[in-house]
Amino acid sequence: MNCNRLVWLAFLSFSFSCAPPAPPVPEETADLIVTGGRVYTLSWADPATDGTPSEAAPRGADGWRPDAEAVAIRDGKILFVGTAAEAARYAGDATRTLDVTGATVVPGLIDSHTHVAGLGELESQISLFGVATEEEAVQRVVDAAPNVPEGEWILARGWDDSDWASRYPTWNLLSEKFPRNPVVMQSLHGFAVWGNRKAFEAARIDESTAAPSGGRILKDAGGKLTGILLDRAGRLLTDAIPEPTPEQFRGYVKAGLERMARDGYVAVQEAGVDRSLMTALSSLESEGSLPIRVYAMLSARDGDLCREWIQKGPDRANDRMLITRSVKAYYDGALGSRGARLLEDYSDMPGHKGTAGGEYGFDMELVAEMMRSGFQVGVHAIGDAGNRESLDFLQSVVDASPETRDLRHRIEHAQVVHPDDFARFSALNVIASMEPPHCAEDQRWAEARLGPERAKGAYAWRTLRKSGARLAFNSDLAGSDHDIFYGLHSAITRRTRDQTPPDGWYPEERMTSEEALRGYTIWNAYAAGQEKETGTLEVGKWADITVMDVDPLVLGETAPGRLFEGKIVATIVGGNVAHESK
Ligand SMILES: [Zn+2]
Q1: I need a labelling partner for 436 at 20 to 30 A (CA). Which of 93, 125, 478, 480 fits?
Q2: 15 pLDDT tier (thresholds 50, 70, 90)
Q3: Contacts (Cβ under 8 Å, ≥6 apart) of 251
């Protein structure tokens, strides 16, 4: 009990007969008070399907304004949300006050589709971002890896392959500095791989090695290797990198989750957890070192693991940092590589419709059994045929076992949908889990694959919302940048980072800034069955909070290009400050 409250209680007990009506004394003191912020609780109703904010939304004549200033937290949950003055009354001797002075406070960010080990692996490599010369690149590796045991692989990434395309480095200096370790240095855009002699030896690449189609092995005038592999030839080297040990892999998973915490995320929905990933996640959870929450979607490609979970049954309560009650299934391929299954031929490849279903490894029996055992399923479907057939599949299971309809099944990506199929999402209670960044990035070639008519049903967030479907937003990291400001910008503008096209690609499908923010918070909480615990800032919910130095609702509406100036100030997960910018 704190002194202020004792004074208050004493005051009340001696003077109740003549005291003016006093504000009620809080029953409990807070562990943490976040104050001085522009707080958007998102506790008001969803906007209409055309994006119009609800009557209850905090808006004035000039647009958005925050609906609170402070949040008080106790035992990992929200004790109070409201004015700074009222929140201060929850302060006790042991309370920490985090004054965020004018920063914006929103419900904790959630990414609904991630691959965190891939992100962590990138994080764990030596960074070559921004190096200007070959010498500088090699020196950076020398500095970062001074005492690596003989034979161990050294991995780096980020030298600029477009900038250096007319003056590729060679392996000479790299081989001289690293005579006993294979070194592989991947480029910024992924089109070139640079290795030393030791790496080429380990990968058994020599002058006689044939380049795969779509790739080149660079050689000098004398026909000798230079240490550079281009495009698809890069895999000759990267495929030779040994698999990480379980301990290394666990380190990647942790590094990926820590990166997400730094970038404002309180939770990820991990799309495709196989045994090695489950082992890593479980051990991190049991030792209390998961920095953020993880909602695990089991990989349907790991049949043994799935069958174990069918025996065990899904986690029903949301009472842990790691929750498992979903399965990720894979129905078709990707659009860029023309693997996505289309109803009609690819516009830029007559006679080709992509691959799907059984030929893509979709185990219908296993997934149906998971559904009947109470698991949510998230089906990867990209093409319009992939989406239709995935909906047909979900429909068939739901028809036979109607209780499975309420498990909030999802289609992951839902990238190209035939006009006849939009309404089936809401009819089947299926969530469209989508990547705003993909729209920004794929627009360069998506129309070539699809033609203008089909492109209207691509990344069609507004059409889906208007059809009654629920959306969930994500980055599909490490494939796309998970930066929230990039994600919000993509959803709000449908433009690339350099603001093309000026009006956005098929701009009628844009989201409002409120919809974009909901897409990374409460809508994702719903997609994981956690909307009662997180996704908005309300008393009794988990204290999952993100603080950023720009106002995404105001900027998203008035100057979305400036969202890129945004920085994460703090990430709070269940009342713990998981990240705080210095
Ligand atoms: Zn994915």
Answers
A1: 125
A2: very low
A3: 120, 124
Percent of the chain with pLDDT over 70: 96
Nearest-10 crossing angle of helices 246-262, 116-124: 100
Cα 353 to middle of ligand 1, angstroms: 21
pLDDT in tens, 511-529: 999 999 999 999 999 999 9
How far is ligand 1, taken at its centre, from the CA of residue 568, in Å? 24
What is the Cα–Cα distance from 388 to 419, expressed in whole angstroms? 10
Q: What is the reported pLDDT for 7?
A: 43
Percent of the chain with pLDDT over 90: 86
Ligand 1 centroid to Cα of residue 118, in Å, is: 11
- In terms of Cβ atoms closer than 10 Å to its own Cβ (0-12, 13-18, 19+), residue 384 is buried
CA of 412 from ligand 1 middle (Å) equals 8
Q: State the distance from the centre of ligand 1 to the C-alpha of 240, rounded, in angstroms.
A: 24
> Looking at the predicted structure, is the pLDDT value of residue 10 above 50?
no
Helical packing angle, 246-262 and 275-286, nearest 10°: 70
Mean pLDDT of 109-135: 94
As a whole number of angstroms, the distance between CA 82 and CA 92 comes to 18
Q: How much distance in Å is there from the Cα of 194 to the middle of ligand 1?
A: 27
3-state SS class at 39: strand
Residues 6+ apart with CB under 8 A from 155: 124, 125, 126, 183, 184, 185, 186, 241
CA of 256 to the centre of ligand 1 (A): 15
Q: Which residues have C-beta within 8 Å of that of residue 6, sequence separation ≥ 6? A: none
Cβ-Cβ contacts under 8 Å for 577 (sequence gap 6 or more): 32, 98, 570, 571
Quote the ligand 1 centre to 475 CA distance (angstroms): 9
**What is the average per-residue pLDDT within 274-289?**
97
DSSP E strands: which ranges in 25-67? 32-35, 38-39, 59-60, 63-64
Residues near ion ligand 1 (CB < 5 Å) are 271, 476
Q: Which two tokens stand for residue 566?
A: 């945004």
Distance 163 CA to ligand 1 centre (A): 29
pLDDT of residue 9 exceeding 60: no
Rounded to the nearest angstrom, the distance between the alpha carbon of 476 and the centre of ligand 1 is 5
Helix count (H) and strand count (E) of the chain? 19, 25
What is the predicted pLDDT for the residue at 582? 80
User: What's the DSSP call for residue 404?
Assistant: G
Backbone angles phi, psi at 577, to 5 degrees: -80, 100
| H/E run at residue 192 | strand 192-195
Taking the mean position of all CA atoms in its chain, how far away is CA 175?
A: 37
Contacts of 496 (CB under 8 A, 6+ apart): 440, 441, 443
